[in-house]
Amino acid sequence: MASMLLKSMRTCSVSPSWAVRLGARSVSTTPQLQAQVQTKSKKTLARPGVKNIVLVEGVRTPFLMSGTTYADLMPHDLARAALQGLLHKTGLPKDAVDYIIYGTVIQEVKTSNVAREAALGAGFSDKIPAHTVTMACISSNQAMTSAVGLIAAGQCDAVVAGGVEFMSDVPIRHSRKMRKTMLSLNKAKTLGQRLSLIGSIRLAHLSPELPAVAEFSTAETMGHSADRLAAAFGVSRLEQDEFALRSHSLAKKAQDDSLLQDVIAFKVPGRDIVFKDNGIRPSSMQQMAKLKPAFIKPHGTVTAANSSFLTDGASAVLIMSEEKALAMGYKPKAYLRDFVYVSQDPKDQLLLGPTYASPKVLERAGLSMSDIDVFEFHEAFAGQIMANLKAMDSDWFAQTYMGRKSKVGTPPMEKFNLWGGSLSLGHPFGATGCRLVTTVAHRLKKEGGQYGLVAACAAGGQGHAMVIEAYPQ
User: Among 7, 14, 309, 371, whose Cα sits 20 to 30 Å from the Cα of 114?
Assistant: First the structure.
């Protein structure tokens, strides 16, 4: 597929300097954009007989580069902090929630149901059920939509959803042979049996198994897949670096302008209070160009500078039926409307989830790309984002791979990830989805828009998209 795509996609390539030009324009034209959006009059997506489900509030701990201030904690510590921050920000009674769902990817074996451990630690009533879900980078997306499903079905009125990832300390296993020996030792009944088993241990048995961000089905790392995808769509190293610089520059501006209102302060035990994300580092094109390829050497284009970094962090959102939220005196932030999940071949289309999911969710909602005021897409790699944008702008790709008559259409960059994205803010695998949804809600209010679109790719060739509608001011 890669060679076919490379040959055919050259016709829809974008000039290498587009990202910087559009990045600058996205900042400078925001007031005009607001004026345009505020003059629009759009129908609501409310449907007769269908329960309105709302996002009441969303918070997250600062997202920190792994191995920094959070290094001595555990995943449930971060999840507990996010839940406590949600309780503090909403004033929610600790027994007023019907269910708690958390997403995570690399699970700590001591707290396999991190949702339950974090909820108990945060002080929620022990009568509230809690479970943990995993769906790679869209784990908290799944937590949120599971919450929506419970409310839509009439099972619950109020659900807390969230996600956590802790890359500073991941489970490292003994080799398979060593594990088998140790389990046999545990069952051995005589000293002779134990000595025989101990004597069978070889030096090679002591080699550890480290987790990797790789596909089980293909054994290919996600960075390697991103490099191949960028090459298939003709995305140059220059384009990727420019997009990454755009992300960091916009995130820095949003941070300086106090727009990242979902971030809560967190007092790390034995250390300082953390107030903000620490991975936002605007650089220069010259500095970024010095970095060597990280995956396909020496000719790859994916580097540490144009990839999201290993991140520690947690998020949490309060989702309710509109009726329940208003009865409790809350002013919701947004309506959570239609959503879809998609899945493709993980070998050649691992990271194209947004391209497949976006048109499906828009069709479900009866909207077009031009109706969307705010776009928030997950940025796993700059090459991944730009490959998706080129795929969405290609009639050939739509006809050949999606069974569509014409292209999906590309999100206007003046509406796209204007407060930075995962490349700059960080990407705790299990927590990013809640950040995306909360950011859309905040941007809709700030910019006067009505509809937002969240989209994300995930390991396994999966993807997610959701339409969010602003709550009337």
Answer: 309
